[in-house]
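PT: before anyone asks, these are the final sequences, not the draft ones from last week. 876 residues across everything. Please model them as a single complex and drop the result in this thread when it's through.
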Amino acid sequence: MTLIADRPGPGAARPYRFPPVVRRAVAGGQVVAAHLPGQNLAVALLLLDVGAGQEPVGKEGLSGVLAKALEEGTAQRDAAAYALAVEGLGTALMTGLDWDSFQASVVIPVDRLSAAVELLAEAVRTPKLDPADVRRVRDDEATALRMDWANPGPRADAALRADLFGAENRWGRPMHGDPDSVAGLDVEDVTVFHSEWFLRPGTLIVAGDLDRIDLDALAAAAFAGTGGGPAQRGGPLDVPLHTGRRIILVDRPGSVQSTLRLGHPSPHRAHPDHVPMTLAGTVLGGAFTSRLNHLLREVHGYTYGIRGDFASSRRFGRFAVSSGVQTAVTAPALVEAVGEITRTQAAGVTEDELEVARSWRAGQLSVELQSPRAIASALTTLVVHDLPDDYHARLRESLLAADVDQVSAAAATHLHPEALTLVIEGDAAVIRDDLTAAALGDLITNP
Amino acid sequence: MPDSGYPWPIETSRLDNGLRVVVSEDRTAPAVAVNLWYDVGSRHEPAGQTGFAHLFEHLMFEGSVNVAKTEHMKLIQGSGGSLNATTNPDRTNYFETVPAEHLELALWLEADRMGGLVPALTQETLDNQRDVVKNERRQRYENVPYGDAWLRLLPLLYPPGHPYHHATIGSMADLNAADLATFQAFHQTYYAPNNAVLTVVGDATASDVFALADKYFGALPARDDIPSAPDGRSVPVTGQTAVESVSADVPAPRVYIAHRSYPFGTPGYNVITVLATILGSGRGSRLYQRLADGERIAQPDLVGAYGVDLAHAPAPLIATATARPGVSAERLAEGLAEVVDELATVPVTAAELDRAKALLSTGWWRQLSTVDGRADLLGRYATQFGDPARIADQLPGLLAVTAEQIAEAAAEVLATDRVILTYLPEETS
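LR: through. Structure below.
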C-alpha cells in the first residue's frame, strides 16, 4: 500500500498570544493599538460611536450617503484632488457601518500611514458637503441600492427583519436602508447627522509595527477639531417572540431558485450565554460540517450551501438561517430545515459535534492572528463591546471549556422553532401550493 | 519598503515521484497554510465534458481510502482550520489554513485524496455533488442579474476548440451526462504527484515539511503520460468586432468591452495590469473621472477594468460600465469605448502612473499579508513558470512599467478583435 492508513495526531500546540494592546487617551479621544513587529502593512481605523441604530426612523441609509459624500471634496480640496491624494499613497478610504458603530479605515505600507490618517481625518471631520454633491450622491446611492435589490436576498432580508423587530422601529428596517428611504433623504438630513455624530472624537484603532508609528501624532490628526462626549447607548431591547410559525412569500417570478431566510429574535451581545449559544449555532448551521449543510447539501443536494447562526449587537440579536434552493424542492427543503432546528432545540448537541465546533472556533482565533486587518477587527470588537485586552485569550479558553450540557441548554433556551418566521423569495405561482400543503405555518404574502 | 516583492525565505524540493514541494517559513502567527496546485483546469476538458474539472473538485471532499465521506471537512474544521478549493480554466487548487500543530494531519488528508480517491468514489456521491454543482450554477450565474456575463464573454473572445472557449462551470447538459467512469479516469489521468505542487507557508521549518511530504506522498506513483491541454497561445485574428446584445431581467443597461491581451506571467501582462488600474481602479481612474464623475453617465460603484490572470493564452482585458438612470445603452457604450480607446492616443501622465503603482503595491502586500495568500502565489509560480522564486519579480515588474509601454500595449491590444457585450433591461428593449 502506498498510502499511510493511520491518521496522525496533533503536534505540540504553540501558545496563543494576542499581540500586546496599547490604550492611550490623546487629544480628547481614545487610541487602541496592537503592536505587530516587523509587519510592513499597517491599518488605521477611526471608530465612531454612531451606528445604523442612531439613524431616525424613515431616514434609513443616511450613514451610507454621508459615507460616500465624505469623499466628494473637503475644506482643503475638491473630489478629484482628494481621490488622487489618497490613491496616490496607494490606499483607499474604506467605510463600514453596523448597528452600533461607523468606521473609516486605511490599509497601507507603514511608512505612509501618517499621511493616510491625515487624509482620512480630513474627509471625516471636514467634508465640504456641498448641497449639489450631496443630492447627486444620494441619487447614486438610491440607484446602487436599486441595483442591489434586483438580486435575490435583500428583499427577503428586509421582510424577515421587519417581521422580527417591527417596521415601526429602526432596527426593524434594513441596516443600509432601501432604495426609497435613501431617495427620500434631503441635504439637511446629511449635514445635521454629520455635525451631530461625526465631530465627536471616537476611537482610533491602529494595528501595525508600533516602533515605526507615532501614535500621538496619528491621534492628534484624527481628533483635531472634535468635541462632545460619547452617545447614550440605550440598554438591551426586549423583543417579543411570535406565537406560532408564519410564512412570508416574496414573489420573484421566473426565479430558478428560492431564497430562504428563517429566523427569530435572540439575545444581545453581552448576554452571559454568548459562548454556548455561538457553539450551538455552529453545530446547527455555522460551519461546512454543520447539521443543516450536511442534510440539505450533502444528503439531499437541494442547495449549494446553507448557513445559520446567532448574531448580536449591543441592544438585540437574531437567529437566522439562509440558503438558496432549487425552486422545485422549496417545500421539502423548508421541512428539513425546520425539522433540524426542532431536533437541535429538543435534543441538544453531541460531544462528537461539539468537539468539532469548539476546536474550530478556538482554532480560528489563532488563524486570524495573521493580518493587520484581522487584528484591527479584533480590536474593534474590544472597543464596541467594552471588553478587556485579554478578551480573545479568555474567549478561546471558554470556547474550549464549553461542555455538552451547557451548549445543549443554550440550544434549548435560545432556539425557538415554533416562533420562526420563514421568508421565501421565489416564484410564488410555482411554489405557493407546495408551501400551503407543507403546513409549516400561516402563509402571509408580502405587502 | 523592502526591495524584493517577497522578503521571506523560499525553499524547494522535489520528491522522487516528481511532487514539487515549496516551503516559506514565517513564525509570526501559530498557523500554517497548506496548498496544492494541480495543473489541470477546464482548459483540459474535451467537448461534451464541460464542467468536469470543477465537479471533480467537489468529489475530492467526499472521502478517500482512509478518510470516510464527510470526514475531510470535519477533521480540518475540528482542528480549527479553514479550507476550500477552486477551479479555473488553468488549474485546480486545494488549500487549508490550520493551527501549526495540525500540519501533519493536513498533509495526510491531501496525500490520501491524491493517491486514494478512486476506490472511495461512488455513484451516490457523484449524483449528490452533481446536484450541488447545478445549484451552484443556478445561484451564481442564472439567478442574478448580469450573472452570466463571463459565460457569454469567453466564447466571444476565444473560438470553438480553444481551451478557454467554454466556462469552468460547464453546461447543465454536460453535467447531466457525467458518468462515474469518466471521473475515475479523470483522477487517474491528472491527479498524479508529478502534476502537482505542494506549498506550505507559515509556522513550520522546511526540513520538517520535506520529511513529512516524503512520508505521506513519497510512495505515490508518478504518471508519465499526462496529456496536455490543447495549445491556445495563438488565437487567429478575425478582424471583426463581436457584438452581443442581451435582453434580460436587469435593472439598468450595462456594457462590457473586452480584448485578448497577453498571457499572465509575460512582461506584456504586467503592462496590462498597470493599464487596467489606470483605466478602471478607484475614484482617480479614467473611467471613474470621465464617466461616473465627469459626464455622469455611469453608476460610480460599477465602473471598472481588470485583466483576468490566465497564463496559457492571451488573457482577457475587460472594461465595464453600468448606466445611470435615463442614460441609454448606446450613449454608455460610446462613452466607454471613447475612454478605452484613448489609452492608445492620450499619453498616461506621471501622476496616473504613480497612482496605479501605489495601488498595485499596496494590493500586493495585502495579498501577501496572510500565509494562505502567499502559499497560493508560490504554488502558482512553481506550477506555471517552474520556479516559485519568480514571485519576487512580480512587484518590481509592475513598478518598472513605463508610460511608453502602456501606449504601445494599448495600441496593439485595442487594435485586435474587440468584443462588446451589452445588457438591456427587458422592458425597454
